């Protein structure tokens, strides 16, 4: 059992174990309340390590029997520890057999073996295997698994585990069994089993080398018509990894299983990926374009882990970004390639930019705040109390940015060479981030020592830039500076290697060919400068007029760019920058400036109006018919509220919301004719298909509706009602509903009721219905607060605190995506938050900890809000039996 006072684990304390496991033979006698697990471990002494006992971790297990080479060990040779057992073994090898009993039905944590809709499912990453049986549950212990499952045939007609099916058959008493073998050694976190009532969509495919493989997507009865997109995505992923990295599927069979109760998105268990239904099931009537997109990228992500994570895994959990950052980078590249392919050659660059912008949005909204708060950590953390708290935007998204910078610095070919070398050295091993970067360095003959600082330093670096034009000699000197603000426990920061992609724009808007001082002729119009010290100058020569710099093109590094640009210059770049990411970014910067100024005025009770120049710049971008709709949907979307709050000091959610409302309403009203014209032009004819071009049109149209509805535009509201009623797919229906809900129109209630009536038996669609209401703004000052609605929805028949998707939809949306309502001045939201975190923690600490993190940056808020939040943080921390997950989050939030 874990105790209340979770100790801190340090990366520096890593030691290999004296005994590891070569083979494990597992037998499960599955029963909802009393499953018996028999495990035979072939243990081997590690000759490189000083002698010591076999270390077995165990959590909530009942040990029935333990033998060593067939005999019970002497009492002194077996010691019980707080979190497991220690057994003295003699010689070089030993067979340890352990029988344990577990209660899957009582397991509400969804870690280990648990029940969902009557079926058995597992989740072992990071440390769930120890909730199934005693084992050296660390990723550096890689064993070969054979698994026998025995269960009731009626209840669980399908029995799955990792690898290949060896045999199956009937047993007395209405039971049956299946025996599986995974030919590849793997760490315990990649073990999985499924025993449930499921149906399958299957396809045969050929790998690049001509092997035939069986692909399966397992879902509950009635959902087969929603499995096709996941299957297509899997096939696309296989092809992409073969093409891009020469990596093939290494098993004869690859399975995806959908389960309704799951803590996160999906899990890459070897050959048996287990997925949250949200990331598998899609058909036009129930899933939006965005759902289709997410399914494609999560299927790809888990599939890509087969090489980056499974074949080469992490030595210890501090190295998590080794597999996660790299795999996120791979799935991002995959999605960008898929979009570019669908868009065709001419529109490929814009399609890629749309994906890149999505990724940058996530980074800014989720990772930048993390880097600025009490949980700030390097992509490779130095310590943790609960590893589950470190599946963070930093490890994943910033981790992916670090890999992307390597890709930028080394080029596509150099990166590929590094990957090849990495696999040639480390296939079948558990390694570290240093091993990865060393392979990249060696393959490219480059010194990446300084680059490693990205793995060690927390905090978002500030990149300063200042340009100096010298008309006399036609030179432009760019002075770049960097500094990273201190983060908890890390006051000193050293300069990083920052790739800065730069372009210089001529007054007519064209890109200038770049010639650095000392070069004989001008080169490409976008160049990657490497900033390595606190300050560096780059002198461009041969220019005929003062250029406008376009920095960090494609968002070439995960930094905050501090560049002084007046409104005019931002408007110029919004209109002219040839780099679509920077064009979008210029619009974001301008919008941010306008919003923060409005918030400052409105917060002080002063009158405020949206500047005309901004409306003009915004309008020309949003209505530029030369740009494809998907890009315009990005350009016309305002910066995320979470990101804006971080940019505000102190953060005042009410003032920010007032500013956003005003801006939405103003843009809705002033551009009404444009939005209505778009709504006429954009509808996609014919049957729904998930295609990026169609999706772009639908996204822009739905955004137009949103602006119109926010402004209370009658024609716009009528259109939203009409489109809601007549919609032929979920994207249109939900887009229209969202526009109505984010307006003062009374039609919102009827529409919500109609939506509910239509989908009342569809769990995934109801998640959308919950989340829309939890995220609703107040469009009239005297309207009831959203908290009342959220509280009422807790009692809805479809809601359950035990289902993570429901919790994330209703509570997650309210706490994370509706700051103005959550932080209502009377503090009611904060009391509610504490009640919910405490209630959730008793069932599922991982889910509770995620909700708990919604208040970690509380010190950035106004003094009045801080005074309201602090006692609630303290109340949660004082709760008896609080999990290490939540206590780490709150403990750090309260630390001085
Ligand atoms: N590796 C899993 C995440 C496991 C989270 C454990 N708390 C999914 C993924 O990143 O692919
Ligand atoms: Zn992953």
From TrEMBL:
Residues 567-895 form the Peptidase M1 alanyl aminopeptidase C-terminal domain. It comes from the Bacteria. It is an enzyme of class 3 (hydrolase). Its EC number is 3.4.11.2. It catalyses: Release of an N-terminal amino acid, Xaa-|-Yaa- from a peptide, amide or arylamide. Xaa is preferably Ala, but may be most amino acids including Pro (slow action). When a terminal hydrophobic residue is followed by a prolyl residue, the two may be released as an intact Xaa-Pro dipeptide. Its cofactor is Zn(2+). PANTHER family: PUROMYCIN-SENSITIVE AMINOPEPTIDASE. This is Aminopeptidase N.
């Amino acid at each position: 059992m874990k105790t209340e006072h979770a100790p801190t684990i340090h990366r520096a304390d890593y030691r290999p174990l004296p005994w590891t496991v070569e083979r494990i033979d597992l037998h499960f006698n599955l029963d909802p309340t009393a499953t018996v697990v028999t495990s035979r471990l072939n243990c081997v002494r590690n000759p490189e390590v000083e002698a010591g006992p076999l270390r077995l971790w165990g959590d909530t297990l009942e040990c029935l029997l333990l033998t060593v080479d067939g005999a019970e060990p002497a009492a002194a040779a077996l010691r019980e520890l707080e979190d497991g057992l220690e057994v003295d073994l003699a010689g070089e090898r030993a067979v340890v057999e352990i029988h344990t009993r577990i209660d899957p039905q009582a397991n509400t944590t969804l870690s280990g073996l648990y029940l969902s809709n009557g079926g058995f499912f597992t989740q072992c990453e990071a440390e769930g295997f120890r909730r199934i049986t005693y084992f050296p549950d660390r990723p550096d212990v890689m064993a070969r698994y054979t698994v026998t499952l025995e269960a009731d045939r009626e209840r669980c007609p399908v029995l799955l585990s990792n690898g290949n099916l060896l045999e199956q058959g009937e047993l007395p008493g209405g039971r049956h069994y299946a025996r599986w073998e995974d030919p590849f050694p793997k760490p315990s976190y990649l073990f999985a089993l499924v025993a449930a009532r499921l149906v399958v969509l299957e396809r045969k495919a050929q790998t690049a080398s001509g092997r035939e493989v069986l692909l399966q997507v397992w879902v509950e009865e009635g959902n087969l018509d929603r499995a096709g997109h996941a299957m297509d995505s899997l096939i696309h992923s296989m092809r992409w990894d073969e093409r891009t990295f020469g990596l093939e599927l290494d098993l004869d069979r690859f399975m995806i299983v959908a389960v309704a109760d799951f803590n996160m998105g999906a899990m890459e268990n070897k050959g048996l990926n287990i997925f949250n239904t949200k990331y598998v099931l899609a058909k036009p009537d129930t899933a939006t374009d965005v759902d289709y997109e997410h399914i494609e990228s999560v299927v790809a992500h888990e599939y890509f882990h087969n090489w980056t994570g499974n074949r080469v895994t992490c030595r210890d959990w501090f190295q998590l970004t080794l597999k996660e950052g790299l795999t996120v980078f791979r799935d991002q590249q995959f999605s960008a390639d898929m979009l570019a392919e669908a868009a065709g050659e001419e529109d490929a660059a814009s399609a890629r930019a749309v994906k890149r912008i999505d990724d940058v949005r996530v980074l800014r909204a989720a990772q930048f705040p993390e880097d600025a708060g009490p949980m700030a950590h390097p992509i490779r953390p130095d310590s943790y109390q609960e590893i589950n708290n470190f599946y963070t935007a930093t490890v994943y998204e910033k981790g992916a940015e670090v890999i992307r910078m390597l890709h930028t610095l080394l080029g596509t070919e150099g990166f590929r060479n590094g990957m090849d070398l990495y696999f040639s050295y480390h296939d079948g091993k558990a390694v570290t981030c240093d091993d990865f970067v060393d392979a990249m360095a060696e393959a490219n003959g480059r010194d990446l020592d300084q680059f490693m600082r990205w793995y060690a330093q927390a905090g978002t670096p500030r990149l300063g830039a200042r340009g100096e034009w010298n008309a006399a000699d036609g030179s432009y000197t760019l002075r770049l500076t960097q500094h990273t603000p201190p983060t908890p426990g890390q006051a000193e920061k050293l300069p990083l290697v920052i790739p800065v992609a730069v372009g210089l724009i001529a007054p007519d808007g064209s890109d200038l060919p770049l010639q650095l001082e000392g070069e004989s002729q001008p080169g490409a119009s976008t160049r990657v400068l490497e900033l390595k010290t606190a300050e560096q100058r780059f002198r461009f020569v041969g220019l005929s007029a003062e250029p406008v710099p376009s920095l960090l093109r494609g968002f070439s590094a995960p930094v905050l760019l501090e560049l002084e640009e007046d409104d005019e210059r931002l408007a110029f770049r919004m209109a002219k920058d040839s780099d679509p990411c920077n064009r979008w970014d210029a619009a974001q910067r301008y919008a941010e400036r306008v919003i923060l100024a409005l918030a400052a005025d409105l917060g002080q009770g002063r009158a405020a109006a949206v500047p005309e120049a901004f409306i003009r710049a915004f309008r020309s971008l949003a209505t530029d018919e030369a740009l494809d709709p998907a890009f315009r949907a990005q350009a016309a979307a305002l910066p995320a509220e979470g990101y804006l709050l971080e940019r505000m000091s102190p953060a005042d959610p009410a003032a920010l919301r007032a500013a956003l409302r005003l801006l939405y309403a103003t843009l809705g009203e002033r551009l009404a004719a444009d939005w209505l014209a778009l709504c006429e032009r954009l509808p996609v004819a014919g049957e729904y298909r998930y295609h990026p071009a169609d999706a772009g049109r639908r996204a822009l149209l739905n955004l137009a509706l949103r602006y119109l509805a926010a402004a209370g535009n009658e024609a716009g509201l009528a259109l939203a009602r009409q489109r809601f009623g007549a919609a032929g797919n979920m994207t249109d229906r939900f887009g229209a509903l969202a526009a109505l809900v984010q307006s003062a129109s009374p039609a919102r209630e009827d529409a919500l009721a109609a939506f509910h009536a239509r989908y009342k038996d569809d769990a995934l669609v109801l998640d959308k219905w919950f989340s829309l209401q939890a995220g609703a703004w107040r469009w009239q000052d005297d309207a009831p607060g959203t908290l009342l609605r959220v509280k009422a929805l807790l009692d809805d028949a479809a809601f359950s605190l035990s289902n993570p998707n429901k919790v994330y939809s209703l509570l997650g949306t309210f706490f994370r995506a509706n700051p103005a309502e959550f932080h209502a001045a009377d503090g009611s939201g904060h009391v509610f938050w504490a009640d919910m975190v405490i209630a959730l923690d008793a069932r599922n600490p991982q889910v509770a900890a995620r909700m708990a993190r919604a208040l970690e940056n509380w010190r950035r808020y106004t003094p009045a809000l801080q005074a309201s939040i602090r006692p609630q943080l303290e109340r949660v921390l004082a709760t008896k039996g609080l999990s290490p997950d939540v206590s780490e989050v709150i403990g750090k939030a309260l630390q001085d």
